[in-house]
C-alpha cells in the first residue's frame, strides 16, 4: 500500500479522492474558504487536499522508518536485548527507535519541505487560494516578481527545514558532532 501511494503523483491521488469521496457527496471537491468561514467548516472543506498531501508523504515516511529500524535490528545490542528475553515491542521502542531517530527526523523534514513545494499542484486541483495558486496565477499572468517572491519563500522554507533536520539529528545523536 505504501509503495503504491508513493508511486502516484499528488494530482493523481487528488483526482482519485475527488472521484471517490467528492462524487459520493462526502466532501466538497473544491476547497473554497473565506475569512468568515468557521474553523469546522474550513476543516471540512480542506479535508481532501490535506488527505492528498498526507497520503503521499506518510507512505514515504513509513517506508523510511521501516528501513531504518530493520537496519538497526541487525545490530549487536539489539540481538543482546533479544537474547536477554525482552519483549519484541520493548526492544523496538526502547532500543531501536531512539537510535533510528536521526534518519527519521531527516526524512520527516525533507518530506515537509516536499509538502511545501508539492502543495502547488494540490492547490490548483482543489482550487484552494494559497501560495501555490498564487504562483500558478502569477505564471499565467507573467508576473515575474510575484513568482520570484513565492519561489524565494518556498526555498527559504526548504532551507530552514533542512537546517532543523540537521540540528535535531545532531541533538538526537551526539556522536554526529565532530570536534576539531
Describe this structure as you would to a colleague:
- With 180 residues, this protein is mostly helical.
- It has a single domain, classed as MetI-like fold (Orthogonal Bundle), CATH 1.10.3720.
- Helix content is 77%, strand content 0%.
- The N and C termini lie far apart (46 Å).
- The model has no long low-confidence stretch (mean pLDDT 82).
Write the CATH fold name.
MetI-like fold
- Low-confidence blocks of residues: none
Compute the number of strand runs: 0
Count of individual domains? 1
- List the secondary-structure elements in sequence, H or E: HHHHHHHHH
Pairing-aware structural class of the strands and helices? mainly alpha
Helix content: over 70%
What percentage of the residues does DSSP assign to strands (E)? under 5%
Rg, alpha carbons: 21 Å
Task: Give the CATH class.
Answer: Mainly Alpha
Number of helices: 9
Distance between the termini: 46 Å
Work out the oligomeric state of the chains in this entry: single chain
CATH architecture: Orthogonal Bundle
User: Given the C-alpha coordinates, what overall shape results?
Assistant: globular
User: Biggest sheet, open or closed, and with what strands and sense?
Assistant: none
The mean pLDDT is 82
Concise account of the structure shown:
Helices cover 77% and strands 0% of the residues.
Secondary-structure map:
Blueprint: H1 2-7, H2 10-22, H3 39-45, H4 47-72, H5 76-83, H6 88-99, H7 101-126, H8 131-141, H9 144-172
Amino acid at each position: 500500500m505504501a509503495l503504491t501511494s508513493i508511486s502516484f503523483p499528488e494530482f493523481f491521488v487528488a483526482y482519485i479522492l475527488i472521484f471517490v469521496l467528492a462524487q459520493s457527496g462526502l466532501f466538497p471537491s473544491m476547497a473554497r474558504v473565506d475569512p468568515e468561514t468557521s474553523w469546522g467548516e474550513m476543516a471540512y472543506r480542506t479535508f481532501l487536499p490535506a488527505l492528498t498531501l498526507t497520503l503521499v508523504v506518510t507512505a514515504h515516511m513509513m517506508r523510511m522508518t521501516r528501513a531504518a529500524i530493520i537496519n538497526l535490528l541487525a545490530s549487536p545490542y539489539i540481538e543482546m536485548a533479544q537474547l536477554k528475553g525482552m519483549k519484541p515491542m520493548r526492544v523496538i521502542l526502547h532500543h531501536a527507535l531512539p537510535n533510528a531517530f536521526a534518519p527519521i527526523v531527516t526524512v520527516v523534514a525533507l518530506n515537509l519541505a516536499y509538502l511545501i513545494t508539492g502543495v502547488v499542484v494540490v492547490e490548483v486541483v482543489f482550487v484552494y487560494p494559497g501560495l501555490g495558486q498564487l504562483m500558478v496565477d502569477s505564471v499565467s499572468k507573467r508576473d515575474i516578481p510575484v513568482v520570484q517572491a513565492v519561489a524565494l519563500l518556498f526555498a527559504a522554507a526548504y532551507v530552514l527545514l533542512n537546517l532543523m533536520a540537521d540540528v535535531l539529528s545532531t541533538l538526537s545523536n551526539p556522536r554526529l558532532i565532530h570536534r576539531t
